[in-house]
Amino acid sequence: MPVSNGAAIWENWLDKAVEESATTAKRAARLPFLWTHAQRVKKGCTPSEVVYEEDRLKLLHYKSENTVPGATPLVFVFALVNRPYILDLKEGKSVVSHFVDKGFDTYLIDWGVPTDADRQLALDDYINGYLLNVVNYVRERTGADKVNLLGYCMGGTMSSMFTALHPNLVKNLVLMAAGIDFSTRDGLLNLWSDANNFDVDKFVNAFGNCPAEFLQSAFLMLKPVANLLEKPINFYEKMGDPDFVDDFYTMEGWLNDNVPVAGETYREFVKYLYQQNRLVKGTMPIGRHIVNLHNITCPVLNIMATKDDLVPCGQSLPFNDLVSSTDRKTIQFPAGHIGLAVGGKSQKELWPNVADWLMQRSSVPAKTEA
Fold it and tell me: What positions carry a catalytic annotation?
C-alpha cells in the first residue's frame, strides 16, 4: 500500500512537472512577441494636434466634429512629474474621450521636460506664466470669456491656485485627486517630506532640478511589495493573455516615463505645502501674490479616490469648505490614484457623469440676433 501511494505521488508530481515545463516553454516562446509589442506601445489614442507652444510646453487640441457651439472650452491640467497622456492612455481607458464625445472643445497641457537651464522656474512661472498664457490663448481661439479647468493630482493643486488668483477666467473647476490640505499624515509622502526628515533646500541646491529617478523610486516605495514583487509575478502568470499584455505594457510605459521637476518649483511645493501647509492657511505665496481659496466662486467638483496612496482623501476633502462657491460637489470613488483615470469602473461609472455635470454648467444659450 505505501508503495502504491508513493508511486501515485511520484506520477502526480511528474505530471505537474511536465505540465509546468510545457507552460514555461510556451511563455518563453512568446518572448520575441513581447519584446516587439513593447516597442510599439502608443502614447494617447484620441486624435490631436499641437496648437500652441511656449518654451518646453505644448498645448494639445483634440479634434472633434461634434463640438457643442457655445459650450465653454475645457483645459486639462496635469502634474509636472509624469507625462499627461495618462488622461488619454488608450481606447477604453481615456478620460479625455468622454469630454470630446460629449461635445467639449478640449485641450491638454503637456508641460514638457525641464532642463538644467529651467531649474529656477517657480510655481509663479507655471501658474501666472504658462497656465495663464494657455488660458488666454484658448479664450482668444474660441471666443469664450472663461474656460473650464480639470486638474489632476499636482495639476489640480495648481488649478486651484490659478482659479483663486484669476477667478474671472474660470467657469467651472474640477479637481481630481488634488492635494489641498497637507496637514494629514495618512500618506507616506507626507511623512518622508516632513521638515524633520527632509531638507529640501539642501536637496535642490545639490541637484538643481528634482531628478526623475528620485521621484520614481519614491512612488515605487509607496507599495514596494505590490510594485516590486507581485507585479512581475502577475505578469509572468498572465503573459499569454494578449489583452493583459497590451494593458500592462501601456501602463508600465507611462509609469516609467517620469520627468524631472524644476528645482524652485519642487522646493516651493515641498516647503510651502507639504511642510508648512500654506494653501489651507491662506498664506501660500505665488510670486507677488498670496493665494486665498476663498476667492473661488465658480462651481466646483472635487473628485477623490478612496484607495489613493499618493493623495489620500484627507488631503482633498477640506477644499470645498475653503471656497466661496455655492455650487460644489464631492465624489469619493472606489479606486486608486491611477485607477481613478484608467480603471474600468471609473470609465463606466464616473467619467460619463462628470462630463454630464460639466456640460450642464458649460452650455451657453445661442445669442439672438437683433
Answer: 153, 308, 337
Cell 482668444 locates to 140
Alpha-helix runs per DSSP H in the chain: 2-29, 31-39, 95-102, 123-125, 132-142, 154-165, 188-192, 200-207, 212-222, 224-225, 231-238, 242-255, 263-268, 278-281, 313-316, 319-322, 339-342, 344-345, 351-360
Q: Give the pLDDT mean for 190-206.
A: 88
Strand partners, 53: 58
Q: How much of the chain, in percent, has pLDDT values that exceed 70?
A: 79
Rounded to an integer, what is the distance from CA 34 to the centroid of its chain? Answer: 27
Q: Per-residue pLDDT tens for 328-360?
A: 999 999 999 999 999 999 999 999 999 999 999
Q: From the DSSP assignment, how many helices (H) and strands (E) are in the chain?
A: 19, 10
- Domain architecture of the chain: domains with CATH: 48-360 (3.40.50.1820)
Long-range contact set of residues 203-209: C-beta below 8 Å, sequence gap at least 24: 204/119, 204/263, 204/264, 204/266, 204/267, 207/263, 208/116, 208/119, 208/263, 209/114, 209/115, 209/116, 209/118, 209/119, 209/260, 209/261, 209/262, 209/263, 209/266
- Alpha carbon distance 344, 324 (integer Å): 34
Pairing state between β 170-176 and 48-54 = unpaired
Q: Which residues of 111-127 are buried (b: 16+ CB within 10 A; e: fewer)?
A: bbebeeebbebbbbbbb
Question: What is the model's pTM?
Answer: 0.85
pLDDT surpassing 50 at residue 38: no
Written as one letter, the residue type at 155 is G
Q: Copy the grid coordinates of residue 344.
A: 474600468
Judging by beta carbons within 10 Å of its beta carbon (0-12, 13-18, 19+), is residue 151 exposed, middle or buried?
Answer: buried
Q: How confident is the model at residue 237 (pLDDT cuts 50, 70, 90)?
A: low
